[in-house]
């Protein structure tokens, strides 16, 4: 381990695992920022729970990436010794928590995709990915239920909560399209039958989102211009700050074990 | 634990009807027989009041205690440590919830108790008014603060009030897990680089004396232990618990290769003649500092209360939305 960044040989499978791991780590990290500051103690518990599930998913996926890369890297090398441009997560995952409405909507949009995605990935011919998918699917089903229930409560609660939820939908919407993108590297895995094309989940995601937003009396935005770049390391301004905090201790003492 | 701030006396009225004295005698007989008092049983008003104060102070301590460790969740230096720390802070929140529920069995509401905390009227453990400055503080807190909490709480598992005793049994299991985890962080640092070991020593230097204060004022100046002892709420005096803690901790520090920041620390053998038996005598505790912290002048008192108030205030619209939605749903179902 060093203070400088590691170099990763991103074969399609390593890149695939890092992308999903980074989604889970960065989003889990964001949720952990709420700990001790949530609107109610029950929500401190719930957000920590979801954050812990995502951290667990990230660790499994990093371990898998390490195994596939076979360069002696560990989960912590991937998490703490890559710079922002080496991170491969969705922009959606790194967006700041904002108010509780934004945190909940961000979780809902992600979980509505991840739940479908992991459930289908349980059939992957790669036994490790299938096992990670099985565990993640169970967890994500709860994340989806929890966040969807809050979307409905906030949307159909008070005037203020409705306004905040609507603002969150509007702010986050342009970041939802990236979930369905696959580049050439990922397409190679799709063609080989190892992983599933995320684009294939768009209609089902759309239906879940439409149903819940309708129940929440929130308007679903029209399809529009979508932001992307996280998957190839072109991030928002926010990720650098997140990583500066997250990586500060291990980068301060080279070679240390924690 | 975190029962240290109990230092106001609840005097019973001077003249009481014979019936009440009889009830009180029956109550005391049950306590003496080690029976558990349950929520619906008759109990003296002062017993109820003492318990509400102690349990709510304990609950507040768990909740405020989330903040100093929460300060390092985003900076935990490995994914394993990050998950463990997040889970630990979440446990503390769970402890707060069980304890508020235990207090509610005595006829108060969580809202009232929360209001007392937020307004600054309620006390919580002095220890959480110290800052967490380095990663080693996560080790020192787990090892020493959770360790002191366990010393205090194990006897509370036999507290005469059933709901509190049962909450403590559950809480103690998790606290001892936290303590081992904290000690393991310290051990890793002490076996690490020279910088890491120095970080561990520096954290110990800062946390040692505040941890000794966690057991509350010395017996000589502690006002109301007597009644709590008769009621079997308190089983050991502050000084007894503090001594147990010091005796347990000195060899642990030695094993880590760390020095406790007390030049007066020395082993005093007891009269058994066995030189290995005795106690660790420790130096003078700075009770003036303790008093200042209880009076609100610790390094973090203001920040801790401000953080809890901010979470509460900024969460108001969320809680209102949940209530409004529940109301709408009920109305729709009734229609
Ligand atoms: Fe405790
Ligand atoms: Fe606790
Ligand atoms: Fe604890």
From TrEMBL, chain A:
Protein name as annotated: Phenylacetate-CoA oxygenase subunit PaaC
Question: Which domain of life does the protein's organism represent?
Answer: Bacteria
InterPro entries assigned: Aromatic_CoA_ox/epox, Ferritin-like, Ferritin-like_SF, PaaA_PaaC, PaaC
What Gene3D superfamilies does UniProt report for this protein, alphabetically?
1.20.1260.10
Q: Which organism is it from?
A: Teichococcus aerophilus
From TrEMBL, chain B:
Q: What is this protein called?
A: 1,2-phenylacetyl-CoA epoxidase subunit A
| Organism this protein belongs to | Teichococcus aerophilus
Reported EC number(s) for this entry are: 1.14.13.149
Q: Does the keyword 4Fe-4S apply?
A: no
Whether Oxidoreductase counts among this entry's keywords is yes
GO molecular function terms attached to this record: phenylacetyl-CoA 1,2-epoxidase activity
Arranged from A to Z, the UniProt key words for this protein are: Oxidoreductase
């Amino acid at each position: 381990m060093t203070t400088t960044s590691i170099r990763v040989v991103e074969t399609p499978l390593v890149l695939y695992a890092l992308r999903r791991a980074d989604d889970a780590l960065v989003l889990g990290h964001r949720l952990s920022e709420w700990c001790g500051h949530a609107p109610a103690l029950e929500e401190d518990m719930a957000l920590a729970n979801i954050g812990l599930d995502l951290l667990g998913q990230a660790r499994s996926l990093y371990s898998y990436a390490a195994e596939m890369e076979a360069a002696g890297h560990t989960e912590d090398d991937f998490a703490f010794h890559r710079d922002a441009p080496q991170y491969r997560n969705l922009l959606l995952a790194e967006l700041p928590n904002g108010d509780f409405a934004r945190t909940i909507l961000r979780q809902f949009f992600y979980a509505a995709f991840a739940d479908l995605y992991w459930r289908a990935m349980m059939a992957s011919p790669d036994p490790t990915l299938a096992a990670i998918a099985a565990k993640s699917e169970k967890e994500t089903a709860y994340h989806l239920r929890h966040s969807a229930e809050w979307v409905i409560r906030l949307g159909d609660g008070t005037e203020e909560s409705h306004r905040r939820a609507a603002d969150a939908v509007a702010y986050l919407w342009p970041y939802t399209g990236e979930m369905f993108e696959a580049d050439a590297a990922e397409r190679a895995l799709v063609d080989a039958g190892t992983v599933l094309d995320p684009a294939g989940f768009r209609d089902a995601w759309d239906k879940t989102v439409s149903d819940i937003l309708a129940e929440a009396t929130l308007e679903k935005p029209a399809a529009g211009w979508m932001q992307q770049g996280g998957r190839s390391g072109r991030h928002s301004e926010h990720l650098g700050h997140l990583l500066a905090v997250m990586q500060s201790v291990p980068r301060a003492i080279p070679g240390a074990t924690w | 634990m975190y029962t240290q701030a109990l230092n106001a006396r609840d005097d019973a009225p001077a003249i009481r009807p014979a019936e009440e004295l009889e009830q009180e005698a029956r109550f005391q007989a049950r306590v003496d027989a080690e029976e558990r008092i349950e929520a619906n049983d008759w109990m003296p008003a002062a017993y109820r009041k003492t318990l509400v104060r102690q349990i709510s102070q304990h609950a507040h301590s768990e909740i405020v205690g989330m903040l100093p460790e929460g300060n390092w969740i985003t900076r935990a230096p490995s994914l394993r440590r990050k998950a463990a720390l997040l889970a630990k802070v979440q446990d503390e929140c769970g402890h707060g919830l069980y304890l508020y529920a235990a207090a509610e069995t005595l006829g108060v509401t969580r809202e009232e108790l929360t209001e007392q905390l937020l307004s600054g009227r309620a006390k919580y453990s002095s220890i959480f008014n110290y800052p967490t400055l380095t990663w080693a503080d996560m080790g020192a807190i787990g090892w020493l603060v959770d360790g002191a909490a366990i010393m205090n709480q194990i006897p509370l598992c036999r507290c005469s009030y059933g709901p509190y005793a049962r909450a403590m049994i559950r809480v103690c299991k998790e606290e001892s897990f936290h303590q081992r985890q904290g000690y393991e962080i310290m051990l890793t640092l002490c076996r690490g680089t020279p910088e890491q070991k120095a970080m561990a020593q520096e954290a110990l230097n800062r946390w040692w004396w505040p941890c000794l204060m966690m057991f509350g004022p010395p017996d000589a100046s502690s006002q109301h232990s007597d009644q709590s002892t008769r009621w079997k709420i308190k089983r050991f005096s502050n000084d007894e618990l503090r001594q147990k803690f010091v005796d347990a901790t000195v060899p642990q520090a030695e094993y880590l290769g760390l020095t406790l920041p007390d030049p007066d620390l020395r082993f005093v053998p007891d009269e058994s003649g066995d030189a290995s038996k005795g106690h660790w005598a420790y130096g003078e505790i700075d009770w003036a500092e303790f008093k200042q912290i209880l009076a609100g002048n610790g390094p973090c008192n203001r920040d801790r209360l401000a953080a809890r108030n901010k979470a509460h205030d900024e969460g108001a619209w969320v809680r209102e939305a949940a209530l409004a939605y529940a109301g709408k749903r009920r109305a729709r179902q009734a229609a």
